[in-house]
């Protein structure tokens, strides 16, 4: 209306100036202010535009009638966004804001170093003037954070390894990455349900604990030590943790690291929201063979792979490693989880087990009865009620004594997964056989112990007798002399 009025009333020279004037007048009296976030900012892609698009994709379901759907490469979910020239209301801390997605055709292809898209896209954010500070100070940061979160959740996890030794790739990174698609989750993990929920709660507390760690002055990190016999699900647990929190995994191969400084570089190149894993820590550094060369070196000095070569400068030390889990370096980069696994907790250096180093020690044990129920459900689709109580009771009676790992149990179940009845029978047989074997073994052990004890006794008795005899003979000799 203003424009047609201007056309009729003013000569062309005056039109532009008066349009500007009306605009200013309108802005002055309007209680709103507007922010344009364009897709391309000069020649660079505007990060904020992508972030807003992602952010709106999470809240768009609430009020939009017309949404555009998209699915990214390697992504497992569909995201939706605002269609062209549509609006959406969002609220943040009780303040209402309005987003509009504006798409216009680019007038003419202006010169640029890279081809620009034909359409000019942008978001316009409308807020009340009184809320301007809130939007500029925290709402846009909130949008950025949420967008990063969504991106992380939608993206595939990555699994990093340092298997190339100390060499760097073309971009100067010491880590190599592959998409991480391990299907293990806490649902599929067979372990005591109460222990499982405890671990899950602990992980969630950690992931949501930024302010707690800040408040208490602690570095935002947590350490878990998983220990137990092979095949009890230590690696599966790590995968479940990563899938649960949506973290990437850094699988640190200590035998490929030569020096402490190399270790430091590797750890500095890890990103936050990640799990740093050292598997079989008792094997990767030989903690029992310490260098005790007159205090020249730290007493924790160890050589990768257990080749304890005193002259070698290529040593990583346990203290160097602990510096990262515990010391000053541990806070470079936040939100990290360290997971160490071992089959022999008794072989570990007490320094590693000291409280505060590894926050939680998790014992992955042989398949228990509750774990078995999870496996039966996962592999055969059996609920507890699907099986006869007598069979369940038989399982329960034999489970502990059998000492069978979840890996062994699942192998029997996989082998017979087409014939569920047979799977149950075969598993029960296998368990009983193991239990019997273990019983025999323990009897044998007890017998051996008794035999050993008796032998020891005899060994102690013999010198006593002989010394008694000697004494008697000496006494006799003495009498003779007298
Ligand atoms: N607790 C469990 N729940 C479900 N599956 C399990 C469990 N433990 C083992 N398995 C199965 O057995 C296989 C081997 O387990 P996993 O590699 O996690 O054992 P591990 O404890 O890491 O053994 P190792 O000490 O040899 O590294 C897995 O592929 C998984 O399918
Ligand atoms: Mg493992």
Automatic annotation (TrEMBL):
Record region (Disordered): 454-482
Keywords: Hydrolase, Magnesium, Signal
SMART domains in UniProt: AAA
Swiss-Prot/TrEMBL catalytic activity: ATP + H2O = ADP + phosphate + H(+)
InterPro entries in UniProt: AAA+_ATPase, AAA_N_dom, At3g28540-like_C, ATPase_AAA_core, Mitochondrial_chaperone_BCS1, P-loop_NTPase
Comp. bias regions, Basic and acidic residues: 455-482
UniProt-listed GO biological process terms: response to stress
Residue span(s) of domain AAA+ ATPase: 220-368
GO MF term set: hydrolase activity
Keyword Magnesium: yes
Family membership noted in the UniProt record: Belongs to the AAA ATPase family. BCS1 subfamily.
Protein name: AAA+ ATPase domain-containing protein
